Amino acid sequence: MTTPRFRPSRRDVLEGTTAAAACLAAGLPGLAPAHAAPALSPMAGGADVRLTVNGEARSLSLDPRTTLLDALRDHLDLTGAKKGCDHGQCGACTVLVGGRRVVSCLTLAVMHEGDEVVTVEGLAAGDDLHPMQAAFLERDAFQCGFCTPGQICSGVGMLAEAKAGWPSNVSGDLLARGDLDDGEIRERMSGNLCRCAAYPNIVAAIRDVSEGGAL
Fold this sequence. Notes:
Elements: H1 10-26, E1 47-53, E2 56-62, H2 68-75, E3 94-97, E4 100-103, E5 116-118, H3 131-138, H4 148-163, H5 182-188, H6 199-212
């Protein structure tokens, strides 16, 4: 014999819901009242971060979620590094941290407590341009200029990596430390995009600096 299934009517559902609400309002043992849930509150204060930026000690109080890029642009007025994709894919925000190139939109400022940061503004020595800056001008290695600060910083960092013997995906000999050919330069700079497609002149500028031994 099949047991008949209970099918509550709309009236049963409404009466049950009303009764449950009344019990909660009265406060049943073991049930916390709704107002006991902790309320979300805005951040009470910032994080103190000390950086050496372009040779100058700087102290900032930042939201811990602030990226290094936003700290440079919005808090230190160093707008050379550009916010392009904001996803670490275009390289326009590249700066040097401890001499190594970093896409500053993907790293938090608080992660670099005490680090030395160099932006494109800090490469020149007074009125004397950095060799990479001078080569970009000589080779006309830019058009709109939006990506240029990141390209220049990345070029400086890349040549330091090559000088230290770091191979690339196209290196024929992983232990060789010879001159960089165009293929090597293109591969090592592939993280920096130029929507104007000034790549031939960018490669030429970096090759000039490499062959000149300025770095």
